[in-house]
Automatic annotation (TrEMBL):
SUPFAM superfamilies (UniProt xref): Glyceraldehyde-3-phosphate dehydrogenase-like, C-terminal domain, NAD(P)-binding Rossmann-fold domains
Gene3D superfamilies reported in the protein's UniProt record: Dihydrodipicolinate Reductase, domain 2 (3.30.360.10), NAD(P)-binding Rossmann-like Domain (3.40.50.720)
Domain (GFO/IDH/MocA-like oxidoreductase): residue spans on this chain: 130-239
Protein name: Gfo/Idh/MocA family protein
TM region positions: none
Lineage: Bacteria, Bacillati, Actinomycetota, Actinomycetes, Kitasatosporales
Organism (species): Streptomyces caeni
Xref: PANTHER family: BILIVERDIN REDUCTASE A (PTHR43377:SF1)
Pfam families for the chain: GFO_IDH_MocA, GFO_IDH_MocA_C3
Length: 341
């Protein structure tokens, strides 16, 4: 029986997200965790025994098949191009780059060399959203009318280089395309700056997908409570996903009218059954790593590609452009990369 050698994986960045990547890499089946790049060293004791080196070149010299890029967003392009040039596959934390141009250069660098590369849009691996996507694909909701997301919480002091649009709203932009399978064609947004920082800390956006579905996103760093809410409303009812608890519920439209006049006036649409689904709840980050490992091995794997990650950066840039110029921005598919292409 032929045995397959473990893949050799490295990590770049041992910050708040990198520490979680280190934990998962250290226990990932079929993978040897061979090294970490962080000039600050292992100040949190999170290296899992992997050696710490100072530069990406030193990590490449250790002989890695792929690397996880978890350094600040502004360094993603530089580090990614370095890995691509060395023939190393990469899983890049989201957003894939801090500019559209940078994202396009990364796509070209990896695609031209035939290297597997993905983006860590972790919500794609949330059990509730994976179940929601499968149910939408099966037609359980019928025609989809609207997607609404709310992503709120207190300011994360780990973030210094980008605002709430690139750090948080990119989650909602990507998951909307992921669960519906459709493209943004327009977006209109408003941002505010309340915390005294250079970057925006709240955004409200309204968009439209290529099938006519309406999209609403509310994202902020100004709320004392944490909320991760996604609802999809269609002809047969409404799915609601809570990605903090990985719960998915379905509120169906009723076939039986409400006869009590007071309730009828208060509730509007006739209320049907509510179903809370039993879902296997595996850790999303572990699922993400397993999928990427399989992709590097050449197996079919449902990863977020660099091209899909680039599309999300394009939509995020349009959100910021809309807020800056106080106008709706068109996102025509023929002019931009197709989400999922």
């Amino acid at each position: 029986m032929t045995t397959v050698s473990p893949l050799r994986a490295g990590l770049i960045g041992l910050g708040s997200m990198g520490r979680h990547h280190a934990r998962v890499l250290a226990g990932l089946e079929g993978v040897d965790f061979v090294g970490i790049v962080d000039p600050m060293g292992d100040k949190y004791g999170a290296s899992q025994g992997a050696p710490i080196v100072n530069t990406v070149d030193e990590l490449i010299d250790l002989g890695v098949d792929y690397a996880v890029v978890a350094c600040p967003t502004g360094l993603h392009e530089e580090v990614g191009l370095q890995l691509a040039g060395a023939g190393v596959c990469a899983l890049v934390e989201k957003p894939v780059a801090d500019t559209v141009e940078g994202a396009r250069r990364l796509v070209e660098a990896f695609e031209s060399r035939g290297l597997v590369a993905g983006v860590g849009h972790i919500e794609r691996c949330n059990p509730a959203l994976r179940s929601l996507r499968a149910r939408l694909e099966a037609g359980e909701l019928g025609d989809v009318y609207q997607v609404v997301t709310r992503r709120q919480g207190p300011f994360p002091h780990r973030i210094a280089d980008v605002g709430v649009v690139k750090d948080l709203a990119t989650h909602d932009i990507d998951l909307t395309g992921f669960v519906t399978g459709h493209e943004y064609v327009s977006i209109a947004a408003h941002t505010v700056h309340k915390s005294g920082r250079e970057h925006e800390d709240m955004v409200s956006a309204v968009g439209r997908l290529d099938d006519g579905t309406m999209v609403n996103h509310l994202v902020n760093w100004l709320s004392p409570f944490k909320e991760r809410f996604t609802s999809v409303t269609g002809e047969r009812g409404c799915f609601i996903a809570d990605t903090l608890t990985a719960d998915l519920t379905f509120h169906s439209n009723a076939a039986v009218a409400t006869e009590w006049e007071v309730l009828q006036a208060f509730r509007g649409v006739s209320e049907g059954d509510m179903i809370r689904y039993a879902i296997q709840k595996r850790e999303p980050l572990l699922v993400e790593h397993e999928l990427f490992r399989d992709a590097v091995l050449g197996k079919p794997a449902d990863i977020c590609t660099l091209r899909q990650g680039m599309r999300t950066v394009e939509v995020a840039a349009a959100v910021l452009e809309s807020a800056r110029d106080s106008r709706s921005v068109s996102l025509q598919s023929e002019d931009l990369a197709i989400h999922g292409a």
